[in-house]
Each structure stands twice: as structure tokens, then as C-alpha cells.
Amino acid sequence: MKTIAKRYDREARLYDLYEWLPEKLVFQKHRKRIFPELSGKILEVGVGTGNSLEYYTDKADVTGIDFSPKMLAQAQKKLNKLGKQNIKLMEGDIENLPFQDNTFDIVVTACVFCSVPNPIRGFKEVARVLKPNGKAVFLEHVKSNNWLIAFMQNLMNPLSVRIFGFNMNRDTRNNIEKGSLAVQKDKHLALGDIVRLFVCSK
Ligand SMILES: C[S@@+](CC[C@H](N)C(=O)[O-])C[C@H]1O[C@@H](n2cnc3c(N)ncnc32)[C@H](O)[C@@H]1O
């Protein structure tokens, strides 16, 4: 098992607790807006403890994957409580997706590419499994374009990787483009230019 997957396994039971504040202050309101709009055959990668699951409507036929079995187990508990029949969860690695080419209408992530070990390979896999007219939707935190904030993010990055398993300083837009996807929309949502919504096509 990859080191980062082990790290998420280790923190799975406490994840919702330490993410409570950023979730309430930053991410929840964006999930509430983004996820109900998604319909068709959807792949959510890095589903984690399932913080987005409640926002899917029954127009979405969702497969959620994660490479940490213990994060997935937390998500499964939430899914059982929600009782949604249109969502299924399974173990899988975004760098080697267990799906055929051109399978999904939408691939979506929330706060995932900060921790994917090889993000460019991950984006290439997203491009591969998307249908030709499909779209990829990434709600992600990234490295700021402000040099002082970026300097602080670089400084703190080794600590956040070691303790939590995520990077604070990923140049995600650049990685998306290197990963064979075209950015159609890049919206700054919160914390200046750190929390962003990318909508991409093949
Ligand atoms: C910061 S958590 C976010 C979880 C969830 N998306 C959310 O918004 O709360 C990142 C998740 O991505 C998963 N992840 C990271 N790299 C992955 C990969 N290569 N394949 C599958 N899942 C991955 C981790 O296991 C973890 O559950």
C-alpha cells in the first residue's frame, strides 16, 4: 500500500473532527452548490469519508473510489445512513483507474489532488475515463500566486505532508494541463486564489 494511503488509513477516524472547521468555514458551502448540479454517470475520486455524498441528487449515478480502505469505511457508514441507492463505493487508485476508456460523463474531486502521489498521472487517468464530451470538476486548494503566501506554503509543506498526507503547494492548474485536460473555467472561491474550482474538458 502507498505511504499516503497508509497515512489516510491512520487518520480516518479523526479526519472529520480535524477537518470540521475548514469544512464549515470554507468547503461546505461550495459542495452544497457544486454537487447537486452533477448528473449522469459520475466518478468521484478520493471520496474520503464521504463529505460530498449527501449533496448528490438522484439524477446522479455515482461511483466513489478511494485508495484508503479506512477512509472508505467511514464513507460507507455515511452512505448507509443516507440510504442512497444511486451511489456505490469501491477501493481504487486514481493513478490506475479500474475503468474502461470513455466511461463517465463527469469526474469530480474535492481536496484530492493535494495528496495524490503522482498528480499528473492522476489527471491523465481522469482524461482517459471521461467520455469525449465529458467534464472534469475539481474543487481543490492550491499554491497561491502571491509570492509571500507561496513562500509560507512551501515552508509549511513538509509538515503538512508528514502529519496529514497533503501538500499545500501544488501547482494544480499546471498539473491539469500536463495531464491532458483543458481548463475551461478556473474560479477563485476562497482564501484569495488558494481554493479554486476548475472545470475541464478532454
Ligand atoms: C484530503 S482527503 C479529501 C476527502 C474528500 N474528497 C473530502 O472532500 O472530504 C483526500 C482523499 O484522497 C484520497 N486519495 C489521495 N490520493 C489518492 C489516489 N491516488 N487514489 C485514490 N484516492 C486517493 C485519500 O485517501 C483521501 O481520502
The CATH class designation is: Alpha Beta
Q: What structural class is derived from the secondary structure elements?
A: alpha/beta
The 3D shape can be described as: globular
In terms of per-residue confidence, which ranges show pLDDT below 50 for 5 or more consecutive residues? Answer: none
CATH homology superfamily name: Vaccinia Virus protein VP39
The average pLDDT is 96
Q: Say how many strands there are.
A: 7
Main sheet: strands, sense, barrel = 7 strands, mixed
The termini sit apart by 30 Å
Indicate the percent of residues in helices.
25-40%
| Bound ligand species | S-adenosylmethionine
Label the CATH architecture: 3-Layer(aba) Sandwich
Strands in their spatial order, largest beta sheet = 3-2-1-4-5-7-6
Sequence of secondary-structure elements: HHHEEHEEHEHHEE
- Tally of individual helices: 7
**Over all CA atoms, what is the radius of gyration?**
16 Å
Into how many domains do the coordinates divide? 1
The CATH topology annotation reads as: Rossmann fold
Tell me the strand percentage band. 25-35%
Secondary-structure topology with pairs:
Elements: H1 3-11, H2 15-18, H3 20-34, E1 40-45, E2 60-66, H4 69-82, E3 87-91, E4 104-110, H5 119-129, E5 130-141, H6 147-163, H7 172-178, E6 182-190, E7 195-201
Parallel strand pairs: 1-2, 1-4, 2-3, 4-5
Antiparallel strand pairs: 5-7, 6-7
Bound molecules: S-adenosylmethionine.
Residues 4-5, 8, 45-48, 51-52, 66-68, 71, 93-95, 110-112, 115-116, 122, 166 line the site of S-adenosylmethionine.
